[in-house]
C-alpha cells in the first residue's frame, strides 16, 4: 500500500538531500547554502543545473544518472510529488542530486550570482491568464539572471502550444540566442537520451496524441528584457488532469 501525504512529508523531513523552505519558513530562516551549494553540499566544483517545477523529479534524477559530472537540484512546492524522486535518488545513493521544496517566485533567494549553469522547465503550467506567473516571463527571467551564469542555458519542454508560442515570442522580442526549437520533439532529429526522459504526465499527453515541444536558448546578463506585445491563441485544454479553458480565444 502506498504512503499518504503525511507519511511522505515525514520521510522528506529526514532526507539529507531535501531542503524545505516554503514562504512560511524562508522569511524567518536564513538560507546558509546560498553561494555554498558546491562547497557545503555537493563537495565538488561541478556545474549546477536546476529543474524548476520538477514534479516527481524524473528529469532531476534521470539527468543526474546521465551526468555524474554535474549537480542537479529539483525545485517544486509540492512535496508529495517530489517524494518520488527524492526517495529514488536517496535509495540509489546519488550524491549529485538534491531537492528544494519552495515557491519558485522566491527562487533567487537560494542561489548566488553565477552559481547555476542551466535551468530546465519541464511541463510548466502555461499560466495563460497572467504573464507574470509564466516561468519564461520577464518576471522570472530577471530572477534567473540573479543566479544564472552569463549566457546560461534555459531548456523548455512542454505540451502547451501557448507556452511554446509565448516563449518563442519572448526570445524573438529580446533577441536571446536560440540554440534549438521544435514543435514536435519526437518527430525531430533532436530526440536523444536526454530529451527522451519522459515524465509521468508527459506519457499521458503522448498517449492522448499531443505533440511535445522543446526550446533551448541562452539568457545573457545584459539588456533590458521586455514582454512581447502579441496575442496568443489559448490552448483548448489545460495540462493533464486539469479542467478546460472556455470563453477565451487569445491572451497577452
Terminal-residue CA separation? 45 Å
Q: Structural class per helix/strand content?
A: alpha/beta
Query: Widest sheet: strand order?
Result: 1-4-3-2-5-6-8-7
Helix/strand order, N-terminal first: HEHHEHEHEEHEHEHEEE
Main sheet: strands, sense, barrel: 8 strands, mixed
Number of helices: 8
Uncertain runs are 239-252
Helix content, binned percent = 25-40%
Please tell me how large the radius of gyration is: 18 Å
Tell me the strand percentage band. 15-25%
Number of strands: 10
Shape: globular
Mean pLDDT: 88
Structure description:
- The chain is α/β, with parallel strands linked by helices.
- Helix 5 links the parallel strand 3 and strand 4.
- Helix 1 crosses helix 5.
- The longest helix has 13 residues.
- The C terminus is likely disordered.
How is the topology of this model organized?
Blueprint: H1 5-13, E1 18-20, H2 23-26, H3 37-42, E2 48-52, H4 58-66, E3 71-76, H5 79-91, E4 97-101, E5 116-122, H6 138-145, E6 148-158, H7 161-173, E7 178-182, H8 200-207, E8 213-219, E9 232-233, E10 250-251
Parallel strand pairs: 1-4, 2-3, 2-5, 3-4, 5-6
Antiparallel strand pairs: 6-8, 7-8, 9-10
Entry summary:
The protein is α/β, with parallel strands linked by helices. It contains eight helices and ten strands. α4 (58-66) links the parallel β2 (48-52) and β3 (71-76).
Amino acid at each position: 500500500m502506498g504512503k499518504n501525504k503525511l507519511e511522505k512529508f515525514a520521510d522528506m523531513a529526514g532526507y539529507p538531500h531535501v531542503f524545505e523552505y516554503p514562504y512560511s519558513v524562508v522569511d524567518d530562516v536564513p538560507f546558509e547554502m546560498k553561494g555554498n551549494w558546491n562547497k557545503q553540499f555537493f563537495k565538488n566544483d561541478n556545474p549546477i543545473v536546476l529543474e524548476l517545477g520538477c514534479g516527481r523529479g524524473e528529469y532531476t534524477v534521470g539527468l543526474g544518472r546521465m551526468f555524474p559530472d554535474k549537480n542537479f537540484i529539483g525545485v517544486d512546492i509540492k512535496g508529495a510529488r517530489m517524494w518520488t524522486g527524492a526517495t529514488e535518488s536517496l535509495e540509489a545513493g546519488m550524491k549529485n542530486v538534491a531537492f528544494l521544496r519552495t515557491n519558485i517566485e522566491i527562487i533567487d533567494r537560494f542561489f548566488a550570482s553565477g552559481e547555476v549553469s542551466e535551468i530546465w522547465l519541464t511541463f510548466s503550467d502555461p499560466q495563460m491568464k497572467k504573464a507574470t506567473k509564466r516561468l519564461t516571463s520577464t518576471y522570472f527571467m530577471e530572477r534567473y539572471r540573479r543566479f544564472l551564469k552569463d549566457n546560461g542555458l534555459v531548456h523548455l519542454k512542454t505540451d502547451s502550444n501557448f507556452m511554446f508560442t509565448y516563449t518563442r515570442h519572448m526570445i524573438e522580442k529580446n533577441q536571446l540566442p536560440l540554440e534549438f526549437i521544435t514543435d514536435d520533439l519526437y518527430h525531430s532529429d533532436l530526440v536523444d537520451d536526454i530529451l527522451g526522459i519522459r515524465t509521468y504526465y508527459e506519457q499521458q499527453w503522448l498517449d492522448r496524441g499531443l505533440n511535445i515541444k522543446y526550446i533551448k536558448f541562452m539568457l545573457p546578463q545584459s539588456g533590458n528584457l521586455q514582454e512581447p506585445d502579441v496575442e496568443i491563441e489559448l490552448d483548448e485544454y489545460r495540462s493533464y488532469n486539469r479542467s478546460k479553458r472556455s470563453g477565451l480565444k487569445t491572451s497577452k
